[in-house]
């Protein structure tokens, strides 16, 4: 419910749904563990439940306060009652003299509030708005939300992510403060629930076009999975696991760099993220890791800071008068600098190909490469491989989060990068689990070597393709080949001493440079850290290098901009009711000629005419026979192109000398498309000249990405509508002899012959 709601507007319901979902997930798993006898001790269930319940008591109280302050009384009441029930349950676990009645009353209150709202909505719908209980009429509320929009660039998912940081920190705070007696298996559900939800919030933050906060939540989710692993390990081994010091030092550096860039976007968030720098350093300095008092002390500070920053985010999402976060001061400061200028505006998250709903995830993906590579520098004990915490860093950072980054890159049209990220993530997951969980043991197998060789063949293809991308990507993929070689040598017992550490360090340093370059390019205008140009250039390779304008077809403003481009003599690729086409305005003869040149149009496949209504041909109606006019009227709008005799009516369209490029000397193909976007565009521009959006002789283009790949440097803009509704072109009907009662078919497309003949028969009867 929170995700579905968030796609429409920014509401406190997003934070409430996601927070409650995380609460019930962790709470339910702990109850299952207790019911299965996994928590046998007399105080184990209490120690497991109290940290999470205490956190959600405070988190929901914050939601309730903001709800009442920002005019969301029902949501505030639900949050307050669940918070009260959680508080009573904490008290019940701490004192046996209290009964469960207060907890039950709190949950009963939630039922009553929900029932009241449901009753109000039912009455509103049954009476068609005549009866509405107070607080249940959403008409005014929706109008306010639409007028307010999504509160500018505010990320509505930041608050739930910060509340989840409170949850993980409270597990360690309660141990330090003596609220719980020990850290054990019962706390793992809270930590892993928080980590899992934060990965989800990381994805949603990319949907909200907030790259830096998405990266921050990806980082903190890694810490949560690692903490859960450390608490889980003592269940099968008596000792506590050790943490690799180099990895945590590198992690603190990544946190510091990200906090620096985040402070330029939002100083409060940047200062908050700095709390994780001493946290990583404290973990690195403590042999006992998460079990030591130093990291637990920093966790107390993170808990308090998370609560304060979450309150600011919750309030700023809904309130008209915002709590200042210092964003304006940073902008004013950078405005005085001629060297650094923040990247802003509609092109901030422009995808490589077409229109994407996600921001770029390369910053997180490169950072995960750094983390996974430095985690491999921890050799560990071959007899007890799990005693050194490597698996969470390699599998979660190098595997899961890199897989997420590859998926986002694919959604943004970065086919090569996404292929590499997904391939590397699979390798990190497989090798991390087999090598560092003891699955392969001390024995090595020829089969493992064959698998690694297969992977290296795939990676060699990526290395070759990266020659055409840029220099940084070539070194990134090439240095990962060194890591793969170390895996291979290890599998066949031929690994030289120190080679694996050297290879991973080189790959980690290259990844760190790419991380910095991606951060800088997403934050500042102009390339601060160069990625280098393609090392090899071939004719026809990289046709989309000169990026033309790309606009989402779902926006009316986009159609208006395309119309302006066409009126000014440009050519554009647009979606239709069949496949994508290349168009030019008939009123601009120079554009018609340009479209003909860009396609290298063959003589046997001439360009056609499209109109949005027969009214556009009304001045020349007397030049058409009545049967032909009535047939056009009955057949359109549809994917049926009619080839009609060429005549003086063509001169009414204003093409002048460029009319020779349209049709043949004897006939012209014309139709009205059955596509609202296309007809609206023709309404704005007038009749247009159309040809398929692909070089002559190639297959039709069925996605805007294909238009970029084939004609990206030859058109002025592409209207991006995603996949074509149909992969079959229009039916082309020969109407040059229609007055004698005969029609022919040049091409039978999506509309069958029988349907066209049926339309003609009906017109003839009329």
From TrEMBL:
Residue ranges spanning the membrane: these are 12-36, 48-69, 157-178, 184-204, 211-234, 246-264, 271-291, 297-317, 386-404, 416-434, 446-469, 474-495, 501-521
Q: Which GO terms describe its cellular component?
A: cytoplasm
What is the designated name of this protein?
Threonylcarbamoyl-AMP synthase
* Family per similarity comment: Belongs to the SUA5 family.
**Which of the seven top EC classes does this enzyme belong to?**
transferase
Which superkingdom heads the taxonomic lineage of this protein's source?
Answer: Eukaryota
Q: Which Gene3D superfamilies match?
A: DHBP synthase (3.90.870.10)
What is one Gene Ontology biological process annotated in the Swiss-Prot or TrEMBL record?
regulation of translational fidelity
What the entry lists under Pfam families is as follows: Sua5_yciO_yrdC (PF01300)
In this chain the YrdC-like domain maps to: 556-751
Q: Which GO terms describe its molecular function?
A: double-stranded RNA binding; L-threonylcarbamoyladenylate synthase; tRNA binding
Q: Which reaction does it catalyse?
A: L-threonine + hydrogencarbonate + ATP = L-threonylcarbamoyladenylate + diphosphate + H2O
Keyword list (alphabetical) reads: Cytoplasm, Membrane, Transferase, Transmembrane, Transmembrane helix
Q: What main location does UniProt list?
A: cytoplasm
- Localization per Swiss-Prot or TrEMBL: Cytoplasm
Catalytic activity, EC:
2.7.7.87
């Amino acid at each position: 419910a929170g995700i579905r709601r968030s796609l429409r507007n920014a509401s406190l319901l997003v934070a409430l749904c996601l927070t409650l979902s995380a609460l019930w997930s962790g709470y339910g798993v702990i109850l299952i563990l207790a019911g299965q006898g996994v928590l046998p001790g007399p105080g184990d269930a209490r120690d497991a439940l109290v940290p999470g319940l205490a956190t959600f008591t405070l988190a929901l109280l914050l939601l309730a306060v903001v709800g009442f302050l920002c005019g969301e009384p029902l949501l505030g009441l639900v949050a307050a009652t669940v918070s009260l029930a959680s508080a009573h349950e904490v008290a019940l676990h701490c004192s046996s003299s209290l009964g469960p009645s207060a907890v039950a009353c709190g949950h009963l209150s939630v039922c009553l509030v929900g029932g009241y709202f449901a009753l109000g909505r039912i009455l509103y719908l049954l009476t068609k708005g005549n009866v509405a209980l107070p607080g249940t009429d959403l008409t005014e509320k929706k109008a306010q939300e639409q007028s307010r929009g999504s509160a500018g660039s505010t990320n509505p998912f930041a608050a739930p992510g910060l509340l989840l940081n409170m949850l993980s920190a409270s597990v360690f705070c309660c141990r330090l403060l003596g609220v719980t007696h020990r850290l054990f298996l019962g706390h793992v559900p809270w930590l892993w629930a928080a980590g899992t939800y934060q990965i989800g919030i990381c994805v949603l933050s990319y949907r909200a076009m907030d790259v830096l906060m998405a990266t921050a939540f990806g980082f903190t989710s890694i810490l949560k999975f690692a903490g859960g692993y450390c608490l889980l390990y003592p269940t099968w081994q008596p000792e506590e696991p050790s943490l690799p010091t180099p990895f945590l030092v590198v992690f603190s550096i990544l946190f510091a760099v990200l906090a620096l860039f985040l402070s330029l976007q939002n100083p409060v968030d940047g200062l908050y993220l700095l709390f994780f720098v001493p946290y990583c350093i404290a973990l690195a300095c403590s042999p006992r890791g998460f079990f030591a008092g130093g990291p637990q002390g920093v966790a107390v500070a993170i808990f308090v800071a998370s609560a304060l920053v979450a309150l600011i985010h919750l309030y700023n999402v809904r309130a008209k008068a915002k709590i200042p976060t210092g964003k304006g001061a940073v902008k004013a400061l950078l405005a005085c600098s001629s060297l650094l200028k923040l990247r802003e505006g509609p092109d901030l998250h422009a995808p490589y190909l077409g229109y994407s709903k996600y921001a770029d995830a390369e910053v997180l993906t490169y950072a995960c490469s750094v983390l996974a590579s430095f985690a491999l520098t921890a050799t560990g004990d071959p007899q007890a491989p799990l005693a050194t915490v490597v698996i969470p860093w390699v599998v979660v950072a190098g595997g899961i989060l890199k897989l997420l980054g590859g998926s986002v890159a694919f959604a943004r049209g970065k086919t090569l990068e996404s292929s590499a990220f997904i391939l590397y993530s699979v390798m990190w997951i497989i090798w991390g689990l087999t090598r560092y969980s003891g699955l392969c043991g001390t024995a090595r197998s020829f089969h493992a070597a064959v698998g690694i060789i297969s992977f290296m063949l795939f990676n060699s293809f990526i290395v070759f393709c990266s020659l055409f991308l840029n220099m940084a990507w070539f070194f990134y993929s090439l240095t990962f080949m060194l890591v793969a070689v170390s895996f291979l040598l290890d599998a066949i017992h031929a690994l030289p001493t120190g080679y694996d550490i050297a290879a991973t360090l080189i790959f980690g340093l290259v990844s760190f440079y790419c991380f910095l370059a991606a951060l800088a390019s997403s934050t500042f205008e102009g390339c601060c850290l160069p990625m280098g140009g393609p090392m090899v250039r071939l004719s026809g390779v990289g046709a989309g290098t000169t990026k033309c304008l790309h606009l989402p077809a779902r926006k009316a403003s986009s159609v208006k901009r395309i119309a302006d481009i066409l009126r000014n003599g440009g050519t554009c690729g647009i979606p239709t009711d069949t496949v994508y086409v290349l168009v030019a305005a008939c009123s601009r003869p120079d554009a018609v000629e340009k479209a003909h040149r860009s396609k290298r149009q063959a003589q046997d496949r001439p360009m056609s005419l499209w109109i949005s209504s027969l009214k556009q041909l009304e001045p020349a109606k007397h030049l058409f026979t009545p049967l032909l006019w009535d047939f056009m009227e009955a057949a359109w709008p549809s994917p049926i192109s009619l080839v009609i005799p060429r005549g003086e009516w063509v001169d009414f369209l204003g093409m002048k000398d460029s009319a020779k490029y349209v049709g043949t000397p004897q006939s012209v193909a014309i139709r009205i498309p059955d596509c609202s976007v296309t007809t609206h565009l023709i309404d704005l521009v007038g009749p247009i000249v159309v040809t398929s959006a692909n070089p002559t002789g190639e297959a039709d283009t069925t996605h805007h990405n294909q238009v970029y790949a084939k004609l990206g440097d030859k058109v002025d803009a592409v209207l991006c509508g995603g996949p074509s509704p149909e992969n079959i072109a229009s039916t082309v009907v020969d109407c040059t002899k229609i007055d004698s009662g005969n029609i022919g078919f040049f091409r039978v497309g999506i509309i069958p012959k029988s349907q066209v003949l049926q339309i003609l028969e009906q017109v003839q009867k009329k």
